[in-house]
Amino acid sequence: MEVWDERLDDLAHGAYEVDCPHCGVDLFVAIGEDGFFSCSDDYASWDDVEKTPLRPADPSRPAGVGKQLYDMARADGQSELARRLSYLFGEAACPDCATVFTVADRVVANSTSCR
User: CB of 104 within 8 A of CB of 8?
Assistant: First the structure.
């Protein structure tokens, strides 16, 4: 859970930078006010960036720490936070190679490699 102590703040900002587990391209994953998508170009700088929609995790299926955080947010009446958590622990697809991956897994992998 140490990674999430550090990386949950990014959820408030609405974006994570990760890499594709297959082709290695750097990706932006937007979770929040800008939408719920992944892209390989800076979506804030370009209007015509290809965006691949994220798929939220099913909150009715247990999923470790993601389920715990989701349940805590719901219990505290934080429905928007719970919604964002469902996307953080859901799936994205690389727009360059179409590889599907779990967003949270890539956040953890990128956090570990930066230490």
Answer: no
Lowest mean pLDDT segment, chosen from 18-27, 60-69, 85-94: 60-69
10 Å Cβ neighbour count for 64? Answer: 10
How many angstroms separate the CA atoms of 65 and 115, rounded? Answer: 21
Rounded Cα distance between 52 and 32, Å, is: 15
Q: Taking the model in full, what pTM does it have?
A: 0.87
* Interval 69-84: pLDDT, tens: 999 999 999 999 999 9
CA atoms within 13 A on the CB side of 40: 13
d(C-alpha 66, C-alpha 11), whole Å:
13
Question: What is the distance of C-alpha 60 from the center of its chain?
Answer: 19
With CA atoms as reference, report the closest residue to 94 among 25, 15, 10, 43. 25
**How far is it, in rounded angstroms, from Cα 36 to Cα 30?**
5
Cross-strand partners of 91: 55, 102
Task: Name the token pair of 74.
Answer: 């719901």
